[in-house]
Amino acid sequence: MTGTAIETRTVVVEREIPYPPEKIWRALTEPHLIEEWLMKNDFELVADHKFNLHGDWGSVDCQVLKIQQHKTLSYSWAAHGLESVVTWTLTPTSKGTNLRMEQSGFRPDQEQFYQGAKVGWGNFFAKLEQVLGGPTEGRWSRLKGSAS
Length: 148
Hints:
Blueprint: E1 9-17, H1 21-29, H2 31-37, E2 40-41, E3 50-55, E4 58-68, E5 72-79, E6 82-93, E7 96-106, H3 111-133, H4 137-144
């Protein structure tokens, strides 16, 4: 038997959010906004850019893999032996945007990471929705910017 592929699992979180893709894109790609819902970071919207996310529990090494303005953002996500890929897909709908996040690459021996990601991404999505349209007017005005 030659090289057997290891089956991996994927965490998927998907929500329809009542804002256009451009506004959600800003929250996914502007470092000060990423910090509000995800973690401190040195993100730049540049292909192949290496960046770090920093949380209370440690850090994540990342690299931008794919950019399709207002449609798709993909980056590697490596921490504590986990080598995965996070992909964001934004699809316009009649009520706003369908936002889909997939984190793929969880090996069978990484059950704790897999379960943690399922809970963690749900929490991150809740924070992202607060940043996008929460009760704090200041946050929303930062997302509005000067251009529509």
